[in-house]
């Protein structure tokens, strides 16, 4: 999964750079992603995949309070993490993270009868994500389509990618711009 994510980011990051015919897409700079926030860490699998693929990043694993408490399992794997209610502000400095990952978080919030809106969650992500940082959200197609319109409201550059033809899941890849377009 991480290898696929990284290969998706490479052409997006360098899409505005001219390439000679036959050149492969360059790899992202080694230190482009330093701090990653996994908003719905499950068992810490994204953290483990980053380590296995040799990515030198620091990951904060977050277990939503309305999900099963897998935090002890994350700790047992040697990772760090916290429990958090995403309808509240996340206790961190602004612009802390280079990448935010969320797998199934929108579905989880929908099952809770939308205690807070997707816009509320995205505004918090916008606060903690550095300019030119990346957001990768994996969820069902209808929720991803709705999330894309919220990303457009925030003036994030957003693309929806199909993951698998047999799956109803899609991936929303967004980048927070350095400066907001007027």
UniProtKB/TrEMBL annotation:
A Gene Ontology molecular-function term? methyltransferase activity
Query: Pfam families annotated for this entry?
Result: Methyltransf_29 (PF03141)
Q: What class of enzyme is it?
A: transferase
One GO term of the cellular component aspect? endomembrane system
The listed locations are: Endomembrane system; Membrane
Protein topology in the membrane: Single-pass membrane protein; Single-pass type II membrane protein
Keywords linked to the UniProt accession = Glycoprotein, Methyltransferase, Signal-anchor, Transferase, Transmembrane
EC assignment:
2.1.1.-
Which InterPro entries would you find in this protein's record?
Put_SAM_MeTrfase, SAM-dependent_MTases_sf
UniProt key word Amino-acid biosynthesis: no
Q: Which family does it belong to?
A: Belongs to the methyltransferase superfamily.
Name of the protein described by the UniProt record: Methyltransferase
Species name: Lolium multiflorum
């Amino acid at each position: 999964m991480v290898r696929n994510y990284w290969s998706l980011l490479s052409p997006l990051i360098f899409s505005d750079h001219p390439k000679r015919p036959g050149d492969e897409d360059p790899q992202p700079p080694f230190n482009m992603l330093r701090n990653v926030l996994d908003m719905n860490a499950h068992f810490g699998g994204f953290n483990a995949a980053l380590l296995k693929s040799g990515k030198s990043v620091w990951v904060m694993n977050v277990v939503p309070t309305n999900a099963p408490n897998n935090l002890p399992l994350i700790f047992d794997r040697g990772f760090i993490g916290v429990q958090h209610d995403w309808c509240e502000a996340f206790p961190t400095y602004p612009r802390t993270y280079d990448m935010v990952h969320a797998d199934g978080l929108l579905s989880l919030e929908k099952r809770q009868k939308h205690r807070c809106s997707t816009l509320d969650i995205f505004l918090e992500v916008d606060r903690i994500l550095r300019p030119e940082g990346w957001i990768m959200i994996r969820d069902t197609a209808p929720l991803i389509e709705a999330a894309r319109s919220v990303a457009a409201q925030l003036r994030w550059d957003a693309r929806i990618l199909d993951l698998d033809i047999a799956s109803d899941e899609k991936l929303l890849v967004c980048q927070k711009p350095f400066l907001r377009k007027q």
